[in-house]
Amino acid sequence: MFESLSDRLSGVFDRLTKQGALSEDDVKSALREVRVALLEADVSLPVARDFIKRVQDGATGQAVTKSVTPGQQVVKIVHDALVETLTGSDDPGKLKIDNPPAPILMVGLQGSGKTTTTAKLAKRLKEREGKRVLMASLDVNRPAAMEQLAILGTQIGVDTLPIVKGEDPVAIAKRAKTQAGLGGYDVYMLDTAGRLHIDQELIAQAAAVRDVANPRETLLVVDGLTGQDAVNVATEFDDKIGVTGVVLTRMDGDGRGGAALSMRAVTGKPIRFVGLGEKMDAIETFEPERIAGRILGMGDIVSLVEKAQETIEAEQAEKMMKRFQKGMFNMNDLKMQLEQMQKMGGMEGVMSMMPGMGKMKGQMDEAGIDDKMLSRQIALINSMTKKERANPKLLQASRKKRIARGAGLEVSELNKLLKMQRQMGDMMKKMGKMGKGGMLKQAMK
Ligand code: GDP
Fold it and tell me: Does the annotation list 204 as a binding residue?
C-alpha cells in the first residue's frame, strides 16, 4: 500500500537525512518535491498545499534536536502533519449500534467492494462485539449480487434476509427491519445496489431506503485505488444521501494513496475502516498513525527523533543539576522554573498536586502570591539583558529601575524576585550537596 507515494517521499528524505546541516532553502526545495509526490499520488491540490504549509510552519523556528540530522527532524514533522491531516474521528472503528436493532446502510458504486465490506463488518461485529447481525441485499437489479451476499453469510455464519423475487428495495428494507426486530438481532445491514456511475436513479433509491430505515450509520464504500475519483464520489454521496463515514477498500494494492489523505480534508467525513484484501478478515479500523507510517515508510526515523527529543530533555535536566550543585542558579534558571510552574497550571495547579497544601492557599492569597505573580516575575526577567540574566549581581540601582520600567512594575517587585533567586540558589546548592544529586536527582526525575 502507498508504495509509490512512500517511495517518492523516501527518496526526498534520504537525500535530506544524509546532509549534516539543513538550510531553509534545503527544506523549501524538499517540500516542493513532497508536494509533487503528493500530487502524483492524486492528493488534491488544495490539500497538498495546505499540508505543505502545515509542515513549513512546523519546521520554521523549531530548534533542531541534537543527535538527529535536520532531515530526520523534517521527516518527523512531515509525519506529524500526515497524522493531523488523516485524523478524522476519535474512535473510527466504533459503530453506533445501540438501540437494537440498529440499521447500518451500506452505499457505494458497483465494484467498490460494498458487498464484501458488508460481510467483513458483519463478521467483525459478530466476533469482536458478540453482536447478532442480519444482512440484507437490496440489489434487485443484480440477482447475482443477492446470491453473493447469501454465500458470504453462510461462509461467515451470519444470517441473511431470505431473497424474495420481485420485491423492491424499500420493501426489502422494511422486511429487514421487521425481521431484525422479531428475530432479536442487534444490527441489520442494508447492502444497497451500486452502479458504475452515480446517477439519479441510484441516488433516489438509496435516499428512499435511507428514509424508511433511518440508519444509525451510513457507510460509503469507495475504491482506494481510484484516488481523486474516490474523493469526488464521496463528496457526491455525502451531498445527496449524507454519510457518517467512509470505508476505503483495496488499500492492500499499490495504490497511490492520495484518496486517504484527501478524503477527510475534502469531504469532512472520517475514514472509518480500510479494506486490505479479499478475505473476510482483511479489514482494519482506520488508524492515522499507522497509515502515516506506511505512507512515509520511515517509522524508524520518527521514533528515533522522538527518542532524541526525550534524551535532550533528560540531558538538559542533568546539566542543570550539575550547575545547581556548584551553586549556580541565575535568572535563566529561575525563568525556566517559573515557566515550568505556569505549565503545571500556575501556583494553584502546583499546590493542588501536593497533598495538604489546600490550607496554604489562603495564606498565599493574603500574601498576594497568585498566578499573576508568575507572569509578572517572568516579565521582569524578560526585561533584563542577557548579561544581567546570567549574572544578577550586576543589578545596581539604575539597572533595576530600567528593568522594572521595562516590565511596567515597581523596583520593589524586582527586589523580591532577586531575593527569591538568591534563596532558591542557596536551596539548590544545599540539596545538590546532600549526596551526589540525592534529593535533587529524585526531584528531577
Ligand atoms: P460491490 O459491487 O461493491 O459489492 O463489490 P464486491 O464486494 O463484489 O467486490 C468486488 C471485488 O473486489 C471482489 O472480487 C472482492 O473480493 C474485491 N475486494 C473487495 N474489497 C477488497 C479489498 O479491500 N482488497 C482487495 N484486494 N479486493 C477487494
Answer: no
